[in-house]
Amino acid sequence: MNTYREQVNNLQEKLVDKIKNDDRTGVKISGYRIAGSWAKHTILRATGLNPIDIDLVLFVTGDESLREDIGRLHDFVVSYLEEIYPTKDIAKDVDAEGKTKAITIKFVGTGLHVDIVPVVPLEKPADYVWQPERGGGGRYHTSVTGQLAAAKTWRDKNSYYTSIVRAAKFWRNYQELDLLSSFTIELMVAHLEAHEGVSSNIEHGLLRFFRLISDSSFPVITFPRAINSVPASYTNPVFIADPTNNENNAASKLTKAGWDEVKSKALEAYETLHIARTMSDLDSTADEWKQVFGPKFNVEV
């Protein structure tokens, strides 16, 4: 883990320094923060198919015209990366296609992926930013600090929360349910903790998680401390609100076909884990769990 931290810190320092000393744009960095699963303590160990993925959020201020043009801003960040890593094949190791919400730089040696996320602070509400939507479809308002604070609250309330989320993500990866984001998994587990009480153990939390997804009626998930309300209409099969803004659907990538597949796999997992509870010996129980999570799964994911 120290190697990953060193790579991120080095990238962070050099990128901020490049932007600070560049008079071409008028853009400045008022702050930066590591976010995502790394900061929420729910990241999984790296595997060949699932590398360590860290979000580096840059709080951008300065040139109003450039801040309004996320495409130009991304182009500048890519040019800075080319200067910082002159021996790196930027076309191969940096993904900024479509001007999505993040620019991903890949470190082949360690397998680390860093998502560089430029955001623009808002005057109101405090601690909120506008952030480009994935795929270049527009922008939305959210709070990076608010999301991290919410995750800390959930961890503090239940010592099993992190392990439940990690196990659910392990299941997602093994079942190749790529449209089910880590963020939506975290939010579903948090919803259950808030509405059904604190999980008594990891198994209990996972059974509730799989039951929630596989039930015929999935609730609209919102958070009481978030700003705004769920839109009157939306096109996705489910709505799982951002814990800082109920207008944002964290499940916006999920299609109906994708959600149907998630539901089907969740039902299989729910039934298999119940069968595992009836087994008389530990080896048989473990075999059932491995049908759900894969042969390399253990409780300490």
UniProtKB/TrEMBL annotation:
Entry keyword Transmembrane: no
Protein name: Nucleotidyltransferase
Presence of keyword Zinc: no
Keywords: Antiviral defense, Plasmid
UniProt signal peptide: none
Native source organism of the sequence: Hymenobacter tibetensis
InterPro entries with a match to the protein in the record: CBASS_cN_synthase, NT_2-5OAS_ClassI-CCAase, NT_sf
SUPFAM superfamilies per record: Nucleotidyltransferase, PAP/OAS1 substrate-binding domain
Superkingdom of the organism of origin: Bacteria
